[in-house]
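Progress narrative, Year 2. Work on DNA-binding LacI/PurR family transcriptional regulator from Ensifer adhaerens advanced from sequence curation to structure prediction during this period.
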Amino acid sequence: MAAHMHKTRRAPAPTIKTLAEITGYSIATISKALRESPVVAPVTRDLIFKAARDVGYQANARGMALRTGKSFQAAVLMPVTAARDYEWDGVEYTQILSGVSQALDGTDYRMSVHVIRDAADGAEAARRIVDQGLADGLIFSGILADDPRIDLLVDHHFPFVSMGRCRKDLDYAHVDIDNEWAAHAATARLIAGGHRRIALVNPERRFSYAMDRLDGFARAFREAGIAASADLIVEGDLSTHFGRQSVIDLLQAAEPPTAFVCINESTTLGVLSGLGSLGRQVGVDVDVIAYDDINVSAYFTPPITTFYQPIEVLGRTLGQFLLKRMEGEDPKALRQVFRPTLIERQPDNLGGRLA
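Result:
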């Protein structure tokens, strides 16, 4: 029995002493290398890290925190609506978390997710993370035109990366979609196809990217030398229900839209549902262009023209930038704005159908 127990007993976890015996370096050198101290030569540090990986060494997080003053936590604020029966909640954000996780893989950092309900909750969570040292860096989205989280973190010189940009001229790391360009490109495409009454299904304008979309929408009309269909702009919570109800309401107007520019997949699904309930057919009676980040628009009936940007890529970039910020890199060097790719599935022109 004793022999059996001896055979099944787990081997002790490798320690810094184990690494010292393997590499021949002192425990002090090993410790400094694992903290990435600049006093350790890069060649030596790389050799020690390789040995640590080979034997499966994992630093004691509490001990490292005490020695370095770091938590080795990368915090992410994840918005979850408190509204009941809200469709699509969290669907896109799982892709962001996946991308961030990929970027952190192989590092000493672990991701901590903080669920928030609204902008005020997010601001309080950010302050708590800073004041209590709950993380060494922070990622968040849903950026407001005037976002108190950005003001707070910039003022405290706390490492963070935002998915989106506020409307203030501040220096901070960010990853974003060129929403002004996307709205302009979609609207200009429809105008070139002969449309003049174009609806914009948009978020509430307190969000920075909603303002960017409004700017692009208006610019397309201005460049075409025609009056913008400002009366066809609707703003809401971006739920599928909101998209459906928007179509039903807008098509009752004296001069209804002949085309729709939708902000995301959820509203687009609602728009298609609303059109179907009224007997309107996309590509025949009305045209729709959407923005897509999880590639579901190809499965809509019918498939619709889309500006596509994989959200997982955004998440991975957010994670990569945060690691660099936590290492002290200048936030001015950590800015990337993506332009989505046009995927044409409908002609998006009147073609004599409504003329």
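The first helix runs from residue 2 to 8. DSSP finds 13 helices and twelve strands in the chain.
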